[in-house]
Known about the structure:
Layout: H1 2-12, E1 21-24, E2 42-47, H2 55-68, E3 72-77, E4 89-90, E5 93-94, H3 95-104
Parallel strand pairs: 1-2, 2-3
Antiparallel strand pairs: 4-5
Amino acid sequence: AGSITALLTAFTVDGIDLHRVVDLWGGMYDEVEVIGPDGPPVLIVHGVQDRTVSFLLAEQLMDELSMEGVPFVAYPFAEEGHGVPLESEVDGEPLLDLIAQFVGS
């Protein structure tokens, strides 16, 4: 629920100053059409084996962000489901550090 709320807020609420959005194994379902080119960069972390929120929703989000020209970084975890451990690593770097770098940049 947190990721969809953050994403919808980032792309639909006027007058807020969001610099980055972090999507942790969430999705926008049928609401991806609200994404516009002026949205903030998005970081997507999603387990490919997620049976709670399908990885297809992450792919749909990435496709829409690409079409609208919104910058994003995606970390799909092939062996994970819903809830990727934050101590996981991406190319030897802790995921939590990558998230902090993204938010702080």
